[in-house]
Specification:
This protein is α+β, with helices and mostly antiparallel strands. It folds into 2 domains: about 180 residues, no CATH class; about 100 residues, no CATH class. The protein is about 20% helix and about 20% strand. It has 7 helices and 12 strands. Helix 5 packs across helix 7. It is globular, with a radius of gyration of 26 Å. It starts with a helix and ends with a helix.
Length: about 350
């Protein structure tokens, strides 16, 4: 009896150790959360932005769910002073890969890039108004575009393929701007910036390592975006030790040459590059190419002549004879206006930067 009792006590003791060990292991176990995003590649694009479940709570608050990661390029394309929020989502257990400093990150099939355009000084009451959300979704055979127009009460956004317009009045600094905001026709116009006329492939623009290699505030922390993508599980850890990077062209404390090269990369390079819509022109505006001033048009003959000008894209120290300056400065000459899409008002800060650069020679 005594021996049997001792055996039972021993078994109970061993069992308690086993239970404690399992309990301790479970206490240290962290469950990997599931993203609630819905993106069935056989069904997208969905009819409503809310169908994807990118955001939690009221849609207009743009509060991303788990798996939807915000990002921001160091320099941004000017779009009639619209503010922009960008997000990326990738399917579970997939990652982007590094190609080069100047090439877009290679995102896996099923990835979605989300770009929201809005204003927060809409008159008369300086209210916030979201205008549109553009998606790029990567399917097995390439990227597709999806354009969503927000309704007046800002409760949702709806799929649209044709261009839309609306009149806006905003407070921009000390100035009131009245203009017509125009959204793109996804079947005709998105390719103009995102398409390659040689390969016929569509690609994102802003997700290059050179654009993301700077510190961004995520609310709870401020950290390098490439490091964040890596720690988040969205980027393979194969980055080089150093990356040739653009800067924020609005930062007047930075080197003028780096600022203008960053401005051209963000606002012009998607067309003025090999395979871009404007590849027939002599300009090559990608950041990697603009160490050579001739690629930015300095002293170079323009393809299109302009009455009263001597025919140079950039005439050093002479904005009045620089066709490039005229093209970024005009708002009425639709044949010459640059960029050709997305701008109806003058980008005063950009024009000033171009003037400062031309006058620096």
């Amino acid at each position: 009896m005594k021996l049997g009792r001792l055996i039972r006590i021993g078994l109970l003791f061993i069992g308690s150790l086993y239970f404690y060990s399992c309990s301790s292991h479970e206490e240290n176990y962290e469950a990997v959360p599931e993203s609630p995003v819905v993106c069935d590649l056989t069904q997208v694009p969905y009819a409503k932005l809310s169908d994807y479940h990118f955001f939690e709570g009221e849609l207009k608050n743009l509060q991303p769910v788990y798996g939807v990661l915000p990002y921001k390029p160091a320099s941004e394309l000017f779009t009639d002073y619209a503010l922009k929020k960008r997000f990326v989502w990738m399917p579970k257990n997939t990652k982007a890969t590094y190609v080069s400093d100047a090439d877009i990150l290679e995102l896996p099939v099923g990835s979605v890039l989300i770009k929201v355009f809005y204003y927060d000084t809409v008159l008369p009451n300086l209210t916030t108004q979201i205008i549109e959300t553009r998606l790029m979704i990567r399917k097995a055979d390439g990227w597709i575009f999806a354009e969503y127009i927000w309704n007046p009460d800002q409760s949702d956004a709806f799929l649209e393929t044709v261009s839309t317009t609306r009149s806006l009045s905003i407070q921009q600094g000390n100035e009131v701007l009245n203009f017509t905001y125009r959204t793109p026709n996804t079947t005709m116009e998105c390719n103009r910036c995102h398409g390659n006329i040689v390969t016929l492939k569509k690609n994102p623009i802003g997700i290059k390592p050179q654009n993301l290699n700077w510190n961004y505030s995520y609310g709870t922390e401020t950290t390098n975006q490439l490091s964040k993508w890596t720690s988040y599980g969205y980027l393979e850890n194969n980055l080089p030790n150093s990356i040739s990077s653009i800067i924020n062209y609005n930062d007047t404390s930075q080197n003028l040459d780096l600022r203008i090269r960053s401005y051209f990369d963000a606002n012009c390079a998607h067309c003025h590059k090999d395979g871009g819509e404007a590849q027939v022109h002599p300009l090559r505006m990608e950041f990697k190419d603009t160490t050579d001033p001739e690629n930015m048009g300095v002293g170079v003959a323009a393809l299109h002549q302009l009455p009263g000008y001597n025919g140079r894209i950039v005439q050093p120290n002479n904005i009045g004879q620089s066709i490039l300056h005229y093209r970024v400065n005009t708002t009425t000459d639709l044949f010459y206006i640059m960029p050709a899409l997305g701008r109806s008002v003058k980008h005063k800060e950009g024009v000033q930067l171009v003037e400062d650069w031309i006058n620096s020679f």
